Amino acid sequence: MDGIRIGVHICRGNWSKQEEVLLSGDYTRLLPALEQMKVRQFVLEYATPRAGDIEVVGRKLSDRELGLGVVNPRTDEVESVESIVAKAEQALRFYRPEQLFLNTDCGFGCFASRSVNVEEVAFKKLCAIVAAAEVLRRKYG
Amino acid sequence: MATTFLTTQVGSWPRSRQMLKMLRGYQKGTVSRQEFNLAAEGEIRRTVALQEQAGLDILVDGEHRRESFYAFLTDKVAGTQLMSLADMLDFVEDKAEFEEMLRTMDMPASAIKNPTCVGRLSRKEPLAVGDLEFMRTLTAKPVKITLPGPYLLTRSMWVGALTRKVYRNHKKMADDIVRILREELLELRAAGCEFVQFDEPVLTEIVMSEECERRTFM
Fold first, then answer.
1. Could you tell me the pTM of the whole model?
2. Residue A42 forms beta bridges with which residues?
């Protein structure tokens, strides 16, 4: 569909802060389905190691945009700007800077009575994403 | 606006205690829809201000009006009923297995609510056009609207014991879900929405859980 950016977000669950109960695996087995989708962007988890390597998606879907997940919404620790920049640089092997969006891995709230984080931490995570984007723009335009 | 490394977030913002109280009141009928919306608008204002302050490029409303990223459909779509996973125990085929799944996955059965299909599905009102319009009054930045994806909805809304009375199979129900989402997408485009994100968290469940038949209803 023209005239509007359509994205699809996929994750491995966001209902618990216990990482080990959430799903694990890379996107290999989903690629045949993803390749057929008429969408401009895939918004994918990459802050968690459970999502596997960026290469899996980068090799097959670099004709689309990637909404790169760079912070885990379920942790209290704020990711460092350096770690976010490094993650984006891995994606730059496959995507141009215009194709690369930086975002959270998932939402911060999810189910009404079970927010996976608090506002103060969520805000700091957004600030880290913005600071990383500024570094990346200086380096790569 | 920058054209590279655009920054955004995926949808929901942590709920305040006040908002949760209003949501429960609204669902019980002790808080009117107008009171509920007023409270949600206050939360959205703060969420937008925080994103502006952080310097994000594309903003979301934080989904404060929504029970969850997909269960909110019961407010907007005829033929649906909001049910907690605990309520649904009576209708799943294998109760013991379902309970075991909730336990091992640390899923809060009473907290997670499902938009179960119990009648013919049709849009009573737009799903998110109102959210976009309200965002326009708060920010000049591009807005991302999130919607539950067709696959997630087909998988979660179908509860055989209740849905089979209305639709012969998943596919028949899915035709109506796709029609509803498409109508919404066209209206959002006409309203000038920059970005619509469909959420499909369960796609991973199909390929990554050991058991393809396991159903978490999300």
1. 0.92
2. A8, A66
